[in-house]
Amino acid sequence: MTPIDWTTLVSPEALQPRLGDDDLVLLDCRGSLADPSAGVAAWRASHLPGARHADMERDLSGPHAAGAGRHPWPDAAGFTAKLSAWGIWPATQVVAYDDGDGAFAARLWFLLHALGHARVAVLDGGWRQWCAQGRPVDGLEPEPRPASYRATFDDTLLVDARGVRAHLDAGGLLLDARAAERFRGEVEPIDRVAGHVPGAINRPYAANLVEGGFKASRVLRAEYEALLDGRDPEAVVAMCGSGVTACHHLLAMAHAGLPGARLFTGSWSGWIEDPARPVSTRQI
User: Fold this and answer.
1) pLDDT mean values, one per 10 residues, the chain (284 residues)
2) Any catalytic annotation for residue 29?
3) Inter-CA distances, 268 with 8, 196, 233, 248, Å
4) Are 240 and 103 in contact (CB under 8 A)?
5) CA gap 141, 167 in Å, rounded
């Protein structure tokens, strides 16, 4: 069979015939912010055949550091060691999935993207759509398949709080992926301060979805071009509560043919670690 090359999304129909390919690694990113043990328990019970589990807290985040927020960006050495243990090489085709709306899988996608790993995609519709269509699953733990992965993150794709201020001062677009009521500061179920970064605009990441999967690329392109209002995609920095759901926007933009947007890694939880930083609840 010809080599596969999925770089943003892959459908269940396209993935199933390639299960078991030597150069394919599946990563199960299911998890729950409310129950950190739920993801691995679900994976042990049943998963796509051959899938390994990638835990949000243990594998897709680093140790806490000042300003890093609730899900700190990991260091490259630690993350590439995980990739090696999962049997991933720089040329491996990786497919990630979760059981929600793709946000956890998108975090994995952007971590690899920031390493320069092109052949990584998210399963459109994730676990729910896969199972709803009656596709194969099993509960077997895959055999270890050690590899060697060495790379560093492209720091130009990652922005801290100081960089966000400079970005806004230069007329850049700061796109907050949280739900509208959190952005407006009406509710805050997780972080100690409600509101948003002054100058940010709100597009809840759920706006990228329709009927449990991503909208068509042409639809996403039209919607993001309206937000860009003549700017280049590089003029976008995406944020959320902790740098996870913001990756959904980065994936959606890339799928729409608008790559180059960046991530505010600490996001809202990192921004509010410094009480001197301004907070807005003004509706935009």
Assistant:
1) 81 97 96 89 97 97 91 97 97 96 97 98 98 97 92 98 96 97 95 96 98 97 97 97 97 98 98 96 68
2) no
3) 26, 7, 21, 16
4) no
5) 45
